[in-house]
Amino acid sequence: MNVKLPEIKLPEFSGDTKNWQSFFEEFKAAVDEQPIPDKRKMQYLKSALRNEALEIVEPYPLEAGNYKLVLDLLKNRFGDKITIRSSLHSELRKLPRANQFVPEIRKTLRKIEAIINQLKLMGENTEHQQLVLEVESKMPKKILTEIFKRKRTDPLWEQLCTRSKKSKSTHVNSVLSLIGKINVRNIKLKRRE
Predict the structure, then answer these.
(1) Exposure string (b/e) for 141-175, b if CB count within 10 Å is 16 or more?
(2) PANTHER family, from UniProt (predicted)?
(3) In the prediction, which pLDDT does 133 show?
(4) 119-170: per-residue pLDDT in tens?
(5) Which of 99, 115, 154, 162 could cysteine-pair with 150, CB 3.0–4.6 Å?
(6) DSSP string, 126-163
(7) Contact 29/48 with Cβ under 8 angstroms?
(8) Would you say 98 and 105 are in contact if contact means Cβ atoms under 8 Å apart?
(9) Residue 193 · residue 152 · CB < 8 Å
(10) Is 26 helix (H, G, I), strand (E, B) or coil?
């Protein structure tokens, strides 16, 4: 039985280092690893690039011999793990403190979790107090008060920390889990309707 799958739209990349790995993995699967000529791969690559990334490859003509060269240029410029980690840490630092509205707190938590998960995927050690403090600094004061209260009195906090050590999860994940378990209705946060 032959099933026709829908056409996959190529990802786009504009030069944001934190998006490089995702772009490259998708591009590699959709184009780079396919049995097509390098000249065609070069066309696909150029069509997927925007802004700074496109400016880097624009001087190179659409020739088969340029494909691997251009791909290496992009990997060296945007795929440097130290630069990507630095960009992720910067993004976390620049993230504003969530306001007292529940949807914004959840949105901030999702952003923090995405950054932490990307750092872990890159081999970053997220098991340090500095990162926990950074995460906590993004929460509104009422949530922070509840976090500190729970850390002092809630046996669940000790269970989370113990479980995170056993499962090689992170202390940061324990904090995120604790924040997620706080019953926001009980601490009188505002809801936007």
Answers:
(1) ebbeebbeebeeeeeebeebbeebeeeebbbbbbb
(2) PROTEIN CBG08539, RETROVIRAL PROTEASE-RELATED
(3) 87
(4) 988 888 887 788 888 988 998 988 888 878 877 776 666 665 555 555 444 4
(5) 154
(6) --SHHHHHHHHTTS-HHHHHHHHHHHHH-HHHHHHHHH
(7) no
(8) yes
(9) no
(10) helix
Q: Which of 87, 23, 68 is nearest to 50 (CA)?
A: 23
Q: Which segments of the chain are extended strands (E)?
A: none
- This prediction's pTM: 0.70
Q: Express each pLDDT in 33-84 by its tens digit.
A: 999 999 999 999 999 999 999 999 999 999 999 999 999 999 999 998 898 8
Q: What are phi and psi of 92, to 5 degrees?
A: -65, -45
The DSSP symbol for 10 reads P
**How many residues in total does the chain contain?**
193
State the SS3 of 33-47.
Answer: CCCCCHHHHHHHHHH
C-beta of residue 122 within 8 angstroms of C-beta of residue 85 = yes
Cα separations in angstroms, 137 against 23, 48, 72, 132, 147: 31, 37, 39, 9, 11
Whether residue 143 contacts residue 179, with contact meaning beta carbons closer than 8 Å, is answered with yes
